[in-house]
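Box 3.1. Reading complex inputs
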Amino acid sequence: MATNEDNLKAIISHAKEYGFVFQSSEIYDGLSAVYDYGQMGAELKKNIKDYWWSAMVQMHENIVGIDAAIFMHPTTWKASGHVDAFNDPLIDNKDSKKRYRADVLIEEHVEKIRQKIEKEVEKGTKRFGDAFDEEQFRATNPNVLRNQSKIDEINLRFKVAMDEEDLAAVKQLIEELEIACPVSGSKNWTDVKQFNLMFSTEMGSVADAASTIYLRPETAQGIFVNYLNVQKTGRMKIPFGIAQIGKAFRNEIVARQFIFRMREFEQMEMQFFVRPGEEMKWYEYWKTERVKWHRSLGIDEKYYRFHDHVKLAHYANAACDIEFDFPMGFKELEGIHSRTDFDLKQHEQYSGKKLQYFDPELNESYVPYVVETSVGLDRTFLAILSASYTEEKLDDGSERTVLSLPAFLAPVKAAVMPLTRKDGLPEKAREIMEVLKFDFNCQYDEKDSPGKRYRRQDAIGTPYCIMVDHQTLEDNTVTIRDRDTMQQERVSIDQLEGILQAKVSFRKALTA
RNA sequence: GCGGGAGUAGCUCAGCUGGCUAGAGCGUCAGCCUUCCAAGCUGAGGGUCGCGGGUUCGAAUCCCGUCUCCCGCUCCA
């Protein structure tokens, strides 16, 4: 029984060997947490995108898709909260080797002082009984006052230091407060480092402070800032959705585990705009819809699990994850969030533009609520790849490695091969290729024994192999071999297009 | 970022008490065979042993630095 770790290694090797995923800039020793999709990977990824787009946009009359730029006005990220929330001052304890957020350490310290005050108040309550005037006590008791002024001073100093980005002052504050590491108990700290989770760059050829812009850390904001454009030009009526597939960038502290967590990654998102008060209904609706989509890939249900968030982000009033059993365990694959009207309200405030919708049924205007579905494209890729990767032991004792990809997502739909390289069989096989290539991505292969060629196609997940043999020359029939059952069926060449179309199109999965 | 492990051919690995021209299997390519589920035959290509420096007559092997990957911790909208 292979361990999960071995399994991940096997998948990474396989992905490299067959041209699915390469490490970025490998000849230069690679670039940490960045990967490239090779010739097979690019096809599979493209097919996943197309399938998602069909399911979300093509299958819903009230959802349209956009393609917003990666560069956005810097104020976007102030409004979204990313500038503040994605900027953590970090500090390490040299003895315990633990890393902390400096602001959290200081907050915890402040909290301790606050508890001293509360104790003092409690004592007062006991001493004075019914005659106790808490307000007056807090305003006059010297111990309380002293501690309160301590708190105020710490908070002020911290705020000033952060505003001025003076990290040395933050460290000094921690040292002066004699904050100790909860694990080692020591006060042996490294310098405070700013960890900026957003990538920044300069717009324009002349660099100055005002021209700093960020690479978007999520695609959602491109939808929010265009919500009114799309609503008006597309004559969209609430409820409606805007979908987008695109790259996003995050400077992860720990970016590892193959393509699961990359610095440059791709999201498939849909923001659904609804009437305030109806958000929970739609939240439930999209939960169900998105689970259906994942199920339609034909991957065993045991790979999936739901996780409802207890602790919610500041913008959400409900959130859940669809988790997948990756080789490294259950991890988030897709998030479904009820984002309230937080984002649009923020953009209204920062832009000074009204982002409201006039609802003719209610005869009133409002800022819509938003239900978001956001699935990682690279994670979906990894999920499909890892669930499809199988090392089989056959009855005759031999082995084969097969990617049992959903047929409609497979990079190559069919391989066309002549049984031998003589007697006009290659020519006949080429003829078939010429017909099929307009509708299906096909490979031609005449090298090595038939069995070997079948295995090669199994390794890249090609669902069907079409073999041209001597009988083909007599009656225009070929054998079509199924990847999963390894069974062959003899069919006439005229039937091929129809057979492939039925098995390989999105239709069956989308209507299941 | 810290701690631990690792890095030799496309893949899996051997060689590592310093010493022939750095090897094997699989894969790849060309040819033979003309075969319906890997492993028939012949041949070829492919590595400055992650990179840089040092010790030495001599380094894949020993020492230092560095990069990358894996595991754990920290973080995670």
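In summary: The CA atoms of residues 426 and 473 of chain A lie 11 Å apart.
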